[in-house]
Amino acid sequence: MMEEELPMGRRAVLAQGFRAGMPFAIAGALLALSFGVVAKSAGFTPLAAIVMSAIVFAGAAQFTAIAILASGGTVAAAVIAAALVNSRFLPMGAALGPSLPGGPLRRAAQGQAVVDASWAIAGRGDGTFDRWLLFGSTAPQYVGWVAGTVAGALGGNVLGDARALGLDAIYPAFFLSLLVKELGDGRSRLVAALGAVVALVLVPIAPAGVPVLAASLAALVGLHSSARAEAAARRPE
After folding, report:
1. Could you give the CA distance from residue 126 to residue 186 in angstroms, rounded to a whole number?
2. What pLDDT is recorded for position 178?
C-alpha cells in the first residue's frame, strides 16, 4: 500500500517540522537572495543561478563555487572545492542512516532532505533521528532557497550591493543559531569545543573544506561516545 495517506501522527510531525523549519527558511531565502545577486554579478545567467540552487541546495558550496569561478578558476576547481565544503554531510549522513528505513537506494533518496537545520531539528538527542521531522523542516527551506535565488537573480539590479544591505551576515548568524540550540549540556559543549579546536588548527594549513570535514568527524565521534554512555546509564542492571 502506498504512503499517500499519512497517519495523523505523521502528519502532525510533518507539520511540526514545517513550523520548526520556517525561521530557517526565511533566513535561507534572504541568503539565497544574496546568492542570486552575487551569481549574476559573477557572470551567471539568471537561469543558471536558479538551476544551481534547485539542484545543489547548499549555500556554502554554491558561494564557494561562485567565488572560484568569478576569480578565474576552472569549473573542476569550483566543483572540487564545493564538494569539500559539503563534506560535512558525510558524517551527518552516517549518523542519520540507521534511522532511515529501506535499502541503500531508498535511504540515499531520503537523505537528500538533509540540510544543517533539519538535521539538528530531527535529532532526538539519543543518536537517532525522526525522518518526518527532517522532511517537514526541509520542505519550506528548499522552497525559500529557490524562491530567494529567483528574486535575487531576476531583481538583483533593484537591490544593489548585497553587502551594503548586510545580507552577507546572515549565513554565519544562521549557523550560530543552530550551534546555540545544541549546547544544552556539558557533553555537547565539550564536543562543540573539540570541533572548533580541530577546525581552527587546520584552517591555516589544510585545503578548503578539510577543516570542516575533520571537525565534523571529531564532533560525530564525541556525540557517538556520549550517546553510548547515556544508553549504558539507562540500561537496567
Report:
1. 15
2. 58
